[in-house]
Amino acid sequence: MNRLSHFLGAALIGLISAATAHAVESEPAAAAISTSMTLSEIIQTGGWIMYALGLMSIAGLALIIYAFIVLRPEKVVPPVFTETLRQYLQRDQLEEARMHCRNQPSPVSAVALAALDYAERVKAPDPGMIKEIIEGEGNRQAAGIQQRTSYLLDIGVIAPMIGLLGTVLGMLTAFNAVALDIARAKPIYLAAGVSQALVTTAAGLLVGIPAMIFYAYFRGRSGKLIGQLEMVSADILTELIKDKDA
After folding, report:
1. Are residues 57 and 16 in the same domain?
2. Is residue 111 located within the same domain as residue 191?
3. Is 148 left (phi over 0), alpha (psi -120 to 50) or beta?
4. 116, 137, 223, 240: which sits with the fewest CB atoms below 10 Å from its CB?
């Protein structure tokens, strides 16, 4: 009888140990399942901050696509247009050059048209004035090219700040759970505030970092295009004042 009792006790202890071990092994899987969040849960956790960052991400994507389309030599300094314009100026066909610039608008055509309009209005154009007009219009066009990329810089700076605002609001939510009512100071309330803080911070960085990367890329690209615009503007100036200097 004693041996039977001893055997049953040992078996019971073994079953309890096995069940405990199985529960401990199942805890990491259960934790992994419970800590995973869907996109809707992430947005709900971040609150209205996530909607603001979502709008900024859409705007940033639209600006990137727009910059890829606009910041090209074919849009700023079209080679075929430039060569045709140079031929008109070499043959002193100023009226044909003006019509050519009006029919194909671009930054380089705007620079040439400003100088040609002045040469058309004045009987004896001043070479110094032509140079100032070309430089002034060239600077205006260059500023417009650079402005197309500056909005990405704004998004890259503002998005992390909005994420930081969400961080502050999330930490306030967490600390208010303790400060306002000690009875509510439970881990679930603290975790909700901290989760909001971390989610908005990460979202702000995910929007801001790509915007800064593409801004740096397009800044270099626009710089090269502005350099080409300056070279063509110098050629236009040379063709327009060569007869005046003779």
Report:
1. no
2. yes
3. alpha
4. 223
Tokens 């960085």 correspond to 205
What is the number of other CB atoms lying within 10 angstroms of the CB of residue 243?
10
Q: Which residue has the tokens 């503007």?
A: 233
How many domains does the chain fold into? 2
Residues 82 and 10 both lie in one domain: no
**Of 211, 74, 80, 72, which Cα lies nearest the Cα of 145?**
72
Tell me: the pLDDT tens digits for 35-59? 566 756 666 666 778 888 889 999 9
- With 0.90 as the threshold, say if the pTM is over it: no
**Are residues 17 and 124 both part of a single domain?**
no
Q: Which two tokens stand for residue 15?
A: 């079953």
Phi-psi region at 36: left, alpha or beta (left = phi > 0; alpha = psi -120 to 50): beta
Q: Indicate the pLDDT class of residue 18, thresholds 50, 70 and 90.
A: very low
Q: What is the mean pLDDT of the chain?
A: 77
Residue numbers of the domain that contains 172: 38-245
